[in-house]
Specification:
The structure is a single chain. By secondary structure, the chain is of the alpha/beta class. It has two domains: 104 residues, 3-Layer(aba) Sandwich (Rossmann fold), CATH 3.40.50.170; 98 residues, Rossmann fold. The protein has seven helices and nine strands, in the order βαβαβαβαβαββαββα. The protein has a seven-stranded mixed β-sheet with strand order 3-2-1-4-5-6-7, covered by helices on one side. A two-stranded antiparallel ribbon has the order 8-9. β8 and β9 form a beta hairpin. The protein binds 5-O-phosphono-beta-D-ribofuranosylamine (GRF). 5-O-phosphono-beta-D-ribofuranosylamine binds next to α1, β5 and α6.
Length: 219
Amino acid sequence: MRAMKNIVILISGRGSNMEAIVRAAEAERWPARIAAIISNRTDAPGLQFAAAHAIPTAVVANQDYPSRAAFDAALQSTIDGFLPDLVVLAGFMRILTEPFVAHYAGRILNIHPSLLPNFPGLATHRQALAAGVSEHGATVHFVTAELDHGPVVLQAKIPVLPGDTEHSLAMRVLQQEHIIYPRAVGMFIEGSLALQQEQGQPSTNTDESRSDHIKKDFA
Ligand code: GRF
């Protein structure tokens, strides 16, 4: 039997992507355990879901640390206490330092609510409406030191419709996030997704998954 892999999920808030990943891990019987849910906010609603599912939780509150470096060091030691094979950022609203990102190179994923490289940063739905784009969406990517950059693993597109608001776009994009994020994490766990360090590009181990999954449009 294959060894169980440890997934550590980082959240700051609602945690709906975390929830989608936990549910997929259970439903699809991944050879993995959600080893911990870690939040930088004590009041993150997602912590309640984690506790209700008997998943260990931890809080590393950024205001308890004098600097970004000190916070990231504490966060790293808390994460490493759970022996992670994969770290999943799921609405984790912190900019991470370079040493932290380097420590998890090739084993840390993020989801961003836009079609990167379009609209990095905050208020992506507002940015999309202001730019007048006809398509919007979400991106799962490996995390690198530059915020919301890093090799793209999966993207899902939705059309921008007449009358769309930030809220309506956010809702439709979120539905897609809940499909592609569990899919990307599942691919990593089953070994069909890995970051090729030399090229800084994600690759898949089979021709099938390469053609089927990379940048697939789930709209
Ligand atoms: C999602 O839109 C995600 O793309 C972004 O933050 C939001 C988190 O939502 N990074 P949730 O906490 O997963 O519900």
